[in-house]
TrEMBL record:
Compositional bias annotation for Basic and acidic residues: 378-393
Protein source organism: Chromera velia CCMP2878
Protein name: Amine oxidase domain-containing protein
SUPFAM superfamilies linked to this entry: FAD/NAD(P)-binding domain
Residue segments, region Disordered: 149-168, 375-400
Cited InterPro entries: FAD/NAD-bd_sf
Taxonomic classification: Eukaryota, Sar, Alveolata, Colpodellida, Chromeraceae
Length: 493
């Protein structure tokens, strides 16, 4: 964490959230504002300042990865890495006609001066920047899907796949898959590194923003936060000319909300938005125990929506190492196990997902394709029963299935913005961000903005990309307002 906020800066912006949208917004704002400083008055070195607040210990948000310690057969301690939130992001084939990596990265100036185009063009531009920076690559996974039919023989009332191995099809989609390299959070790490280079930035990781309220006496936004581990009563606050909220939970009327309940400005359009709920199982099997695949989709399975093989993504450590899988549950399963923002009973949910995974793998790859392997001890992250963490003791372990090296369940109560067809996505914005402004008595203007996946155009399929685009658009809009205010101020003097 860098030192004090520069309170002499004439324009101070607080960005809450270091996910892809908050970081893209901060990065673009800093680069645009510094070009304004250079254009108009190089001496205005401290005329603006961005403070980035993030509850997590590092950047990433819902592109975070999770590292898990595992003890190998020889007793050596290894570490496995899982993309435990967004496994990838998608673009329609054709939208991502990306220039080859060998071509030079566009300079910040050319990015800033690019004429605003359609969402499609702007997204292509963003992808080009990310790809040229080496943060993302296209992934061509072996994608298998099959219908999971009801009432197969020998399985009682459970839904089972009937002769799935025969029916499964290799999917030919019109979707391009993109992944962060070497992990999904490379985009956020890369953006954070660019943000850190700026002199006019302050980062507050591990800080929970509690409230953002207009303070009439100074005509500023008062941002109050508490550091991790600090007690009640140890809150800190600072005043800002603009505040950016990059998570819809910050706007909503719940325990995470930071705006006053009485707030009725444009950001309140995001108050009623709904999210999907997903639980994920992070698991790994010994090298060579599963046939190679990228994504499995057992359509109609009651528990498993998809299985993603992280090890098959580009630039993941794989030679001779374990096969890392991230299993995404169906929404119905996650909702059945959700209580508050976590599992009602984590162990039961994890065991159900483990059983579901075994069913799915056996159907896609009948037993002869799956190699049994010895038990390998696991270094536990939690106090859970070590047998349970390895999947031992689960009722249908039949000895033909490899035992997992690790098995951890995680609940995402707000995973993705609910789809438009459910009628819960915000249609009103259209701009890709939300912006509110208030005129103070002495003529100054203060801004309150929101960006993130929940602001992205409803037709946008890739939420990671949509979130970043939203951050970029908000930065451009804020910059425009600052430039006008700045020009007016220079004209007056
Ligand atoms: C399981 C799962 C599967 C997904 N699958 C896909 C997919 O297939 N394709 C796709 O494109 N997208 C997918 N997504 C969605 C994608 O990850 C998000 O849309 C995108 O990352 C959102 O970025 P964001 O910046 O809008 O929000 P976030 O990444 O959530 O960033 C918001 C940040 O704000 C911080 N924050 C919140 N409140 C506070 C506070 N009070 N104080 C300080 N900090 C705070 C949070 O810690 C967080 O880091 C998936 C997500 C999940 C969880």
């Amino acid at each position: 964490m860098k030192s004090k906020i520069d309170s002499s800066a004439s324009c101070r912006v607080a960005v809450v959230g270091a996910g892809v949208s908050g970081l893209q917004c901060s990065r673009d704002l800093l680069s645009r504002l510094s070009s304004l400083r250079d254009e108009t008055a190089p001496s205005l070195k401290t005329s603006f300042h961005v403070s980035l607040f993030e509850w997590g210990r590092g950047p990433g948000g819902r592109t975070a990865r999770r590292r898990v310690k595992v003890e190998g057969e020889e007793g050596a301690v290894g570490e496995l890495s899982f993309d435990h939130a967004a496994p990838f992001f998608q673009t329609e084939t054709g939208t991502g006609s990306i220039r080859p990596l060998s071509m030079p990265c566009p300079s910040p100036q050319s990015i800033e001066s690019a004429q605003p185009g359609t969402d499609e063009e702007q997204a292509r531009q963003l992808l080009r920047e990310w790809e040229s920076s080496g943060w993302v690559e296209k992934w061509k996974p072996v994608e298998l899907e099959a219908e999971w039919e009801e009432g197969g023989e020998g399985h009682g009332n459970r839904n089972v796949g009937k002769d799935l191995a025969g029916q499964q099809s290799s999917v030919s989609t019109e979707t391009d898959y993109w992944v962060g390299v070497p992990s999904m959070n490379s985009i956020c790490k890369g953006l954070a590194a660019e943000v850190q280079k700026a002199a006019e930035v302050e980062e507050y990781f591990g800080c929970h923003v509690l409230s953002v309220e207009g303070e009439e006496s100074v005509q500023k936004w008062k941002v109050t936060w508490r550091e991790r581990g600090a007690k009640e009563g140890e809150e800190k606050f600072e005043f800002f000319d603009a505040a950016v909220l990059s998570d819809k939970l910050l706007i909503q009327d719940n325990k995470y909300g930071v705006l006053p309940k009485s707030y009725e400005g444009p950001l309140s359009a995001a108050r009623e938005l709904k999210s999907t709920t997903v639980s994920v199982l992070l698991t790994a099997f010994p090298c060579g125990s599963l046939p190679a695949f990228g994504i499995l989709r057992p359509r109609g399975h009651p528990v498993i929506e998809k299985v993603v093989c992280d090890t098959e993504k580009p630039h993941r450590a794989k030679k001779g190492g374990p096969v890392c899988l991230v299993v995404h549950s169906t929404e119905a399963f996650a909702k059945r196990h959700l209580e508050g923002d976590w599992f009602r009973d984590e162990e039961t949910a994890r065991e159900e997902m483990e059983r579901g995974l075994r069913e799915v793998l056996k159907k896609f790859f009948p037993p002869e394709g799956v190699v049994s392997s010895p038990v390998v001890p696991v270094e536990r992250e939690s106090d859970a029963d070590p047998k349970a963490e390895r999947g031992e003791g689960s009722s249908d372990t039949d000895g033909t299935f490899p035992l997992p090296l690790v098995s951890i369940a995680h609940m995402w109560d707000c995973a993705q913005v609910a789809r438009p067809e459910t009628g819960t996505t915000m249609q009103s914005s259209g701009k890709g961000y939300l912006l509110d402004s208030a005129q103070g008595n002495t003529g100054g203007t203060i801004f309150l903005g929101a960006c993130g996946d929940f602001c992205a155009s409803s037709s946008w399929r890739g939420e990671v990309l949509g979130a970043a685009l939203s951050g970029r658009k908000l930065a451009a809009a804020l910059f425009d307002r600052f430039r006008k205010a700045h020009t007016a101020c220079l004209t007056q003097t």
